[in-house]
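S1.2 Input.
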Amino acid sequence: MPSRSRAHHDPHHELRHDPASAVGDTGGGRRETAHMGAPSAGQSVPLVGRSEELTRLAAVLACAAQGEPSILLVHGEAGVGKTALVRDACARFTGQVLWGTCVHFSGSAVPFAAVLSALEGWLSGASHQERVEVLAGLGALSVLLPSAPQGGDPESGLLLTQMDTAVLRIAQRDPVVLVIDDLQWADASTLDLLAFLVAGLRTQTVAVIATLRDEDRPDGHPVNGWLAEMRRNLAMSEVHLERLGPEDTADQVAALMGRRDADGGLAARVFARSGGNPYLTELVVREPAGPPSAAEVSEALRAALLVRWYGLSEPAREVTRLVAIGGRPVAVSLVERVVGLLGDGSRYGDELREAVAEAVAAGVLAHPEGNQVWFRHPLIAEVLTSDLMGPDPAPAHSAYAKVLADSDAPEPGDVARHHEQAGEWSEALRWSLAAADSAAALQGAAERLEHLRRACRLWPRVRAAAEAPEEYVALLLRTSRAAQGVAEPDQALDLIDQALALCDRASSPGVACRLLTLRHRMQVEAEHLAWTVVTPALREAEQIAEALPGTPERAIVDSQLAWTQWWAGDQRGRELADAALRTARETGSPDAVIPALVVSALTRPETDVAMGWLEEAYELARISGEAIEMTDAALGMHNLHEVHGEYAAALDSGLRRGTDLIVAGAPAAARFVLTSAAYFALCLGQWARAEASLRPSLAAADGGHREAVARCTMAILCVRRGDLARAEDQLARAAQISSTEYLGTATYPFGRAELLIAQRRPAEALAIVEAQVRAASLADPRDADELVLLAARAAADLAQDGRDRGQDDATEVAEGQHAAVLRAAAFSSDRPMFAPWNEADLIQPARAALYEAELARLRDQPDQAESWACARGACRRAGLRWEAAVAASHEARAVLRAGRPRAEAAGLLRDAMTTALELGAVPLGRAVETTARAAHLALDPVAQAPPSGSGERPWAGLTVREQEVLTHVVAGRSNSEIAKALFISDKTVSVHISNILRKSGTTSRVEAAAWATRRAEATSNDEREDRRY
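S1.3 Output.
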């Protein structure tokens, strides 16, 4: 429906005749970046009827400036005024505007193109010092930005995180709005970056606004899936722009004609023809002999654009058509070189720049950046390039390809696209391969795949099917691996099948073995099969390999067979892995050695050389650039570190290998490796690092098991932070995309049980564990141990809740439910619960101690304090910070209950509170505060004594030692605690306190503490007043 909202008509504001109002200085000393691809200021469509939408945008920007970040999508049909609306709102914004535009015809030449453009726009107007500070340590990003300071390490870091860092650093200086115009044409990497940025927003002064067309988004369009995931984010909102109503259209007509009011009949006729589309209204007003009103608005708009275009001189029309063929904003000098190659300068007039100026004056072209030229509205370029009646564009594409290739920094993707559209298949193939390499260097895995797929499509046009099939097979294989790297297993499988169709099993049995083995792997991933499955492809590879003893291919096939056998519980897999490794070593082929090392480590984790095998496999794969094999080795190291209880090493390994995998072109695998690292960071109390490691997976939302693990891990973190609603949301999404059954470490049952315990629903938590613990005990006994520990926590809570309600059999009931969990687990005698790997494994003893302490709490044993003290010490030694703090909190309660010294409990509670505050563990902090208040214990930290200087001393008359004692008195410490902290006797402390009471004129410790606080605050206020004058 047409919009009915009306704004007070202000032609001076709406027409914006001053070009400086769009770019450059907007007054008040605020810098605004140039907006690539936005309408030129002198030809802007008057903005009327958008008061409600402007209010919404203003609210989003105002909230961002106050540290409430969000993302806003403005969508509607072409010409409805999305860009004009956002530009108007940004013109009123007092912070920094980073504006990037996605271009339809760019061929996805550069990953992150729109965001790089936005950052370059900001840098071009920043001072040298600002550039240095914002880009410090961001070498991988700096090398891509022409305005960046020289120097730094161009190889260091990940572009995704560095661009995120750059935006947030700019926001630290001034609130920021990042605008991405025409999001429907964004490259995949830009979409990933926006999701990553938004996933990390908490209190930053950042707003993200994107404009999005309703058209040009068929089923399967990348933006549709991205949009569906973004709508799950509570920070996202949307504005849909409708066409204007008759009254607002009349206001627009009046503004376009420079009048206060429009002739009613004229406005009605314009509305009948434009349907309220603002851009079409402008075209109808400026070109009265426009399209008939019977046409659909979208078609009428295109026809009206052609009317405007036909109004140009012939040279100007030819120049604009040539610019449209270029496909992106282009320097006028480059267009001149293209004209020179075409050899028919007469078509473009004697002076090309005059033709450009004519098109700019007519509102067809604009100068978005410096000497560049592009269309005021991208629809014009679409209309011109889709005009089948125009001249053959192939010669122009050929000329563009040659000129671009000869430029200082050619974009291989652009060159390849022009060669392809010129019908120059050989050159298009060559430049497509170069574009794939370029995209890989920019960490644009999705764009790399796009270029490789184009190369595969071009190959048959360049070479006959029978010519060099091995090279085509290699290209298909390379493209298949690229597809697997971005979690497109169906594409990967299809490409492998194409390669197999070209492979003659009889003449190339080795190639066939490799392809069939890889097909097995791809099929398992594409169809979500168990590792135990032997597919027909693997069975065929096994048959072929029997005739290839002592070859790399035999080792490759044997390694895959050993893998499936081992996961199926077949001990013969170990012997087959040994044989595969021997054969691989004999051949010396890295392709054979890598999988043999990985499967050997899998089947012999108890050996001292297992980790060395995995590290060797990883390094060989990294040198070879084989991301799939790097992933296998990285996850093998993760599993081995976990089994050995080496959580710190696992965390370090996961973080480093995750970064490597992104650079290697396997971001999907990298995200899972980082998710695995997040689990260890969570366990070790490095919660900020855990959240940062989960962010890529949560932002990418790949779906399936791997995303579900990330969401379940995040759910556990949210529970421990006290954000139960967010934890519930994460688990709900995990249940949608994967299973609620046990599928490994940190899967759904772990998160659900923790949430139920936090919600005081222990019986339900016990039911979850009882249902899942058997599967865990069969797959990974350490996971079963962790579930049993959760069950013990739940049973202890259940017993405590029952006792609080006066339930006589509360302990017995809880014991029975806990026993049911143990029966379900069915631990074997040769592997008892919480068995450590070796003496160096500190994780399992810590869990065992926690388990015993929870049982003591369940049974309400009088000696609980000793159990919790044991658990606290074991957790500290293992590095389990949150668990140690929880144990300290329970120990303090047990100490108080046992009537032991209050100072002992106070120290434990302070330690627990310190950890709770550092981690942001809100529920733990509340529990500690509750215990402290009930026991009348002060948890305030010991303040540093006010310094004595030339000014007035707040505690004048007290000796240095008395001031030290007084700081502890203010913090609520007992005499014994003060004596211990200051290494003096209790008697000496008592003497000092007597002196403090006498000198301060007080009669009690409480009065002395109040006196000290008052004097310190008064002195501090006096000093602040002095500094004012």
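S1.4 Remarks. The first helix runs from residue 11 to 15.
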